[in-house]
Design goal:
The structure is a single chain. The protein has 998 residues and is mostly beta strands. The chain is 11% helix and 47% strand. The protein contains 15 helices and 48 strands. The strands form eleven sheets. The protein has a 22-stranded antiparallel barrel. A five-stranded mixed sheet has the order 10-15-16-13-14. Strand 18 and strand 19 form a beta hairpin. Helix 10 packs antiparallel against helix 11. The protein starts with 10 loop residues before the first helix and ends with a strand.
């Protein structure tokens, strides 16, 4: 027995040394045991052909201990016998191997075909991604959860090639427009058809859904894909699948965030000193006394040093919060899902607020061995609050030295005597109100029957209910009522009910080298909308809003309406595959709509697509260049019935007549008739699409390329008719529009290391839009600015080429101008400006768009950066129209511009005091690059999670639109054409959030 002797001078010191010695000894023993327990293990990792894989990750599961394979596929690391090795590499199935007593491993990876076997929703069924023959793009829930945006427009913007989503104001709740593959109509916007869990819907409903409730979205682009939806699919189709239960124990998930909305893109207005100099320069230019346009109070307030920031009185730092909680689970016989969501946005204008509640519930289960019964409901209630748009407009227009308060400290209604038409915006903030309430509920009840293998019979009944109420109130003390007129109010109530009953039969079987799929559909759809509107003036009390329209002196408007429509559809589709290399899809749909004229109610929409999986050919495989190569070719016809329910009918309306009676004219109400169009029928789009899908390096790099040519014919336009028929125009099928373009999507896995990964998603789209024909006479329509051979939405006007300068007096005089005034292009050189000098200046939709997302992970951290752009787009600036053009009206404040004076002979902007009625300088390039989203997250590791009882915990920080790069100096370039009443304020949003799973 070994003895250890401790020499010490006293008992206490001896005990201390003894304990220290024991601790050191214990540490040595533990170290020895650890060294004995852990041993060096090694091995090789190869692919399915036996070739070594370099860069594969090999880690000890549940720890940070790991390594990567070298160029020969070899690895070595320490692990104890109870450890589990986890081997992973992009493009291959992750493997887990118990160490046990082995010290050497030979591991062969299996290809991960998940990406190719992933199912894509193509309407009335799904197909594997490898078998898709048309042009389809998909986004799953991972993107929506990572970005945590409050609306679908923000989540989808810049993410899908060819999908043009444009926000049209800075209002809370997000007003947007969406176009897929160019403008396919004239005089209106044809948006993609939206299908939510099988129910036909629209973009507005989708944009107001809770993104956390959406599992995936599949965008059908070409006519081969969209023709399956027939008469409403010429603008493309967005298929939305909401989340549902999965087999397994009940799981509770919570997502929440809170953040702020900052102001940005606030164009500069003149302060007191700048505006006083502007007034002096304007009157010097007009040879007038500098104080001509000033009132006595102007000089008094200016000399007193007033410099009021009127915008600050009605704007604020915004606020945003969202919360979503869900329960999901099930077993082999039943699945269920239930979620609740809440969102609140306080916009940057003090009266601007948006609030949304949502509910999603689904359940399905087997009632018999071959029968599955299920149901679902999605409901949302949203409230949008606002105020008079004039408040922001007044805040921009008021002179900077105006006094907002009376001598007793109360609010002053007219801040300057010189501006008696422009009131203090604080009065509109306090005494006006706009409120919109929207309730939506859609659901389904379905029954599946599988009598034999491969055959499914399904019936699905889907009701849809909507209820909207809009209220508007303007008190006496508002700009509209000038502080003297009685209060006004308006209420609009609308409700509607529709349903779709679909019955489908589908069959899918494989016979040797042949695979066959067939789908048949019979569908009925009907619905109605009722609307009631009442507007009054002279409310008895100013605080009753629109809830007591009877307490009034006058009724200014009272209307009601009822509209009904119905549709019956038949569809058949066949999918055929040979040896999984040669694929064919043929579809035909017949739609009958009540909107069309008798004899023209039915439309037939056929399509066909073929695909060749070239990567399955031996001579392609021998190249060792492609992991995937597929060529696609499609042609199809889709339709558009976006026309009023009664455009083909003869209808009656009210009108006003002037009668001459008793030596005076008397106004009388009468009835007018609308001429029916007995030939009104469908718009139809005919589209070719050629696509190429490529994969390289085990699909670490994938490329999808599409070229399309879509011609839309028989456009529904208002055509002029001889006035002796009693009407001047009617809706008819005339005109044609063509869209050509290319789309490119690239996904790459750039780096895969032990603790670090980097992936990139890139998309690009280019579209060329042109009017092919209008009224059949090959003539342009100058009144509507429609030109054959040119895009639908061109800007056609006088071309501003700068400012007349000193020394150009003689030349300027020919055009009735002088130095300091705007100079325009004299296209025909006849020495005068007339309508023949107008030219096509640009286009209001971008020529090309793109988006790129880079995602990085390092251990438990993740970072994604999303950038998108809209290029070659021109809008007439609403800001400059209102505040940089009307410069003869010196009563209002002006934009801070580098304007012309004799001492500052610039070409940037014309002289103060000059009113440019042509407004040609206001057509501006509004192209931009924008960092749309930056998200930094951290996910708690498995060891730390065990102590919390959670299965997942992730915290993140997100910045939305933090940086915009543009030459445009007005409001946000995305909605530069908006005026101040359109609530153009914009900014960035910064949020902190958490994702929990129990």
């Amino acid at each position: 027995m070994m003895k250890i002797y401790l020499f010490c001078r006293d008992k206490t010191a001896c005990v201390g040394r003894y304990l220290n010695t024991l601790m050191c000894l214990a540490a040595c023993i533990l170290s020895v045991n650890a060294a004995i327990a852990q041993s060096m293990v090694s091995g090789t990792v190869s692919d399915e052909t036996g070739q070594p894989i370099a860069g594969a990750n090999v880690i000890v599961k549940g720890t940070n201990q790991g390594t990567t394979t070298n160029v020969s596929g070899e690895f070595s690391l320490r692990a104890d016998p109870e450890s589990v090795l986890q081997i992973s590499f992009i493009g291959y199935v992750t493997q887990e191997i118990e160490v046990g007593r082995k010290v050497s491993f030979k591991i062969q990876m299996k290809p991960d075909v998940t990406s190719m076997d992933e199912v894509v929703v193509v309407g009335y069924g799904v197909v594997k991604k490898r078998d898709v023959t048309g042009s389809v793009a998909s986004i799953d829930n991972s993107l929506l959860m990572r970005q945590n945006t409050p609306s679908m427009s923000q989540a989808l913007k810049g993410q899908i090639a060819g999908l043009n989503i444009r926000q049209t104001s800075g209002k809370a709740g997000g007003e947007t427009s969406v176009i897929l593959r160019g403008m396919s109509a004239i005089g209106k916007t044809v948006q993609p058809m939206v299908i939510i869990d099988g129910m036909p819907s629209n973009w507005t409903v989708l944009n107001n859904m809770n993104p956390s409730d959406i599992e995936r979205m599949d965008v059908l682009k070409d006519a081969s894909s969209t023709a399956i939806y027939g008469s409403r699919a010429s603008g493309g189709v967005i298929i939305v699948t909401t989340r549902q239960g999965e087999e397994g124990k009940n799981r509770i998930t919570y997502s929440g965030s809170v953040g702020i909305r900052t102001l940005a893109h606030m164009p500069r207005m003149m302060n007191s000193e700048e505006f006083m100099q502007f007034v002096k320069d304007a009157n010097a230019y007009r040879n007038k006394s500098w104080d001509t346009d000033l009132g006595t109070d102007d000089l008094e307030y200016y000399e007193a040093g007033y410099d009021t920031d009127w915008r600050d009185m009605v704007l604020r730092m915004g606020y945003q919060t969202s919360h979503s909680i869900s329960l999901s689970g099930g077993n082999k016989n039943e699945t269920h899902y239930l979620s609740f969501g809440y969102l609140r946005e306080n916009g940057n204008q003090k009266s601007d607020t948006y609030e949304r509640y949502s509910l999603n519930a689904k359940i399905s289960g087997k009632v018999l061995e071959d029968f599955t019964l299920g149901g679902s409901i999605y409901a949302s209630y949203a409230t949008s609050l606002g105020g008079d748009g004039e408040m922001l407009r007044s805040a921009y227009r008021l002179r900077p030295w105006g006094n907002p308060y009376n001598e007793d400290g109360s609010d002053r209604f007219y801040p300057t005597k010189r501006q008696n038409g422009i009131s203090n915006p604080i009065f509109d903030l306090k005494n006006s109100k706009d409120e919109v309430n929207r309730f939506r509920a859609m659901g389904s009840v379905f029954l599946d029957y599988k009598p034999v293998e491969g055959l499914v019979v399904k019936t699905n009944f889907m009701p849809n209910f909507l209820m909207d109420r809009t209220g508007q109130y303007r008190g006496t003390w508002t700009k509209n009522n000038k502080g003297t007129n009685p209060a006004t109010a308006k209420a609009v109530n609308k409700w509607g009910l529709s349903y779709v009953w679909e019955n489908t039969v589908s069959f899918n079987r494989t016979f040797g080298d042949h695979s066959i799929g067939a789908t048949g559909l019979f569908s009925m759809e009907t619905g109605f909308d009722e609307e009631y509107t009442g507007a009054i003036k002279g409310l008895t009390y100013d605080d009753e809003y629109w809830y007591n329209l009877g307490a009034r002196t006058d009724i200014t408007s009272l209307t009601s309406s009822l509209e009904k429509s119905s549709m019956i559809s038949y569809m058949g589709r066949i999918n055929y595959g040979y040896r999984e290399k040669y694929l064919l899809t043929v579809t035909g749909r017949w739609d009958g709509s009540s909107k069309m004229a008798p004899g023209h109610k039915w439309g037939f929409f056929p399509s066909a697509a073929v695909a060749w999986r070239m990567s399955e050919e031996p001579w392609i495989k021998n190249l060792n260049a492609f992991s995937n190569l597929k060529l696609r070719l499609s042609y199809g016809v889709s339709g558009n019935n976006s026309v009023g329910n009664y455009e083909s009918w003869a209808t009656l309306g009210t009108t006003v007549y002037n009668w001459y009676s008793e030596n005076k004219y008397v106004v009388a109400n009468g009835v007018s008739a609308k001429k029916p169009n007995k030939g009104l029928s469908w718009e139809k789009s005919y589209e070719y699409n050629i696509g190429l899908d490529m994969g390289f390096f085990k699909d670490r790099l994938s490329v999808v390329f599409d070229w399309y040519n879509k011609t839309t014919k028989d456009l529904i336009l208002s055509r002029k008719v001889p006035s002796h028929q009693g009407v001047t125009s009617l809706k008819d099928n005339v005109g044609s529009v063509r869209n050509k373009g290319i789309e490119l999507t690239v996904n790459s896995v750039n780096v895969v290391a032990k603790d670090f990964t980097w992936t990139t998603n890139l998309n690009f789209s280019y579209n060329k839009n042109a009017i092919v024909d209008l009224y059949g006479d090959k003539r342009d329509d100058l009144g509507n600015k429609w030109f054959i051979g040119q895009p639908v939405d061109v800007n056609y006007d006088y071309k501003w080429i700068g400012v007349w300068q000193l020394g150009e007096e003689e030349e300027a005089a020919k055009y009735g101008a002088k130095p300091g005034q705007s100079k325009y292009l004299d296209r025909d050189g006849n020495g005068k400006l007339d309508s023949d000098d107008r030219v096509i200046l640009g286009c209001r939709t971008p020529k090309w768009m793109g988006g790129m997302t880079n995602t990085f992970t390092y251990k438990n951290f993740d970072l994604s950066v999303f950038i998108y752009t809209r290029q070659n787009v021109q809008l007439q600036s609403g800001f400059h129209n209102e505040y940089a053009t009307e410069w003869t009206n010196l009563a209002n404040n002006a934009a801070k511009m580098n304007y012309w004076t004799p001492e500052n002979p610039t070409n940037d902007w014309f002289a103060a005091g000059f009113k440019d009625s042509k407004k040609g300088a206001n057509y501006m390039d509004t192209s931009f690059w924008r960092i749309g989203n930056i998200t930094l997250g951290y996910e708690l590791g498995q060891k730390a999670l065990k102590a919390t009882g959670l299965s997942k915990l992730r915290i993140y920080f997100t910045a939305v639109n933090p940086v915009t790069i543009t030459d445009y100096e007005g409001w946000d370039p995305e909605w530069a054409d908006k005026g101040a009443t359109g609530l153009p304020v914009a900014g960035a949003t910064y949020m902190l959030g958490v994702n929990l799973t129990f």
